[in-house]
Amino acid sequence: MTLPLKQPFVSSHETLTQRELTVIELTDVSGLRGYGELEAFSQPFYTRETQVTARWIIKNVLESLLVNVEFDQPEDLYTKLAPVKGNHLAKAAVDSAVWDLFAKQQQRSLADVLAKKADTTRKNVVKVGISIGILPLEQTIRRVERAIKQEYGRIKLKVQGNDDLQRIAAVREYFPAIQLCVDANGSLKPALGLAEKIDALQLTMLEDPFSMEQHEQTAELQAKLKTDLCYDEPIESVADAIQAIEAHECRVISMKTSVLGGLTPALEMVAAHKRYGFPIWCGGMVEGGLGRATNLALASLDEFAFPGDISETAQYYEKDYARPGFVIQHGALQVPTGSGTGVELCPGLERI
Ligand code: OSB
Ligand code: MG
């Protein structure tokens, strides 16, 4: 399906005007169904995989490994998928559906199942953050004002290039007290005085300042900064996170269930957080209601230190395809109590 966006979502990678999404449906022998959202975009600007390539991998590679296969635990999926390299977004779509189905078989919420697996406790009401795309200054201020009214726990602004930091400085001057984050999506360039400019913004954190390959430059910047750097795009595995933290390239990890390859590797990241102590939070991919529900279940675990990019889907879409839609109340989302992700798909979705 393709959902039109209410307003283009602009980052330094691309301008999204619509969101193509695919839902994977799995059925068990008793007829119970599990669903997982495929989070690849239509174009390979943010990740290598796209909706078309990931669907191809699912249909032509993953499906044949999984049909009529018995599972004991959802983690068993990863044993079956071991021969397949990479393709995390394709794997994550299937993995989310397996976890949803497993939770439904247990007649428990996905959040409960994840908390038990991670041997931890969780919240029923989860404070969330919002990510605001690149807009002219006036519109940015109006958008931030609205987000403050909705009591989002943390506001993240996208930025494009060093010069655009002036716009952030103007926003900071206008709102001196809010928890502000910036995501450069790799668009900044190392420059004299950059660290001072960044620290002056008083950010909670700065995400992905330089391009993914600029590990040393990022470590040099982090060494000069009081502000914490956060890695999102370079983190495709637990090993990536440990390496980045140990090399002092960043102090915080934004983890995306889909980019990691699903909830099974996401739980491994939670375990690594417990072992190594780096703070984690849950990133977003402009998901539809089902993808948001998967992330919300994960982000309900007490290990998630900062509000995630789990804004209500009404930020992006006039009409979501999953219900009940999540509505923000006092900057928080309620974890659904139904079994599995707790969301249902609206009827009439096209089958492919
Ligand atoms: O870099 O965090 C990112 C959306 C699409 C692709 C990359 C990113 C984002 C976001 C999260 O900023 C937005 C959201 O899901 O609300
Ligand atoms: Mg990011």
UniProtKB/TrEMBL annotation:
Q: Which GO terms describe its molecular function?
A: metal ion binding; O-succinylbenzoate synthase activity; racemase and epimerase activity
On the tree of life, the source organism's domain of life is Bacteria
Q: In what residue span(s) does the Mandelate racemase/muconate lactonizing enzyme C-terminal domain sit?
A: 137-228
Q: Could you give a single Gene Ontology term from the biological process aspect?
A: menaquinone biosynthetic process
User: What's its EC?
Assistant: 4.2.1.113
* Class of this enzyme: lyase
Its keywords, alphabetically, are:
Lyase, Magnesium, Metal-binding
Q: Signal peptide span per the entry?
A: none
User: Which cofactor(s) are needed, names only?
Assistant: a divalent metal cation
Q: Name one Pfam family in it.
A: MR_MLE_C
Annotated SMART domains: MR_MLE (SM00922)
Q: Which NCBIfam families match?
A: menC_lowGC_arch
The molecule here is called o-succinylbenzoate synthase
Q: Which organism is it from?
A: Ligilactobacillus pobuzihii
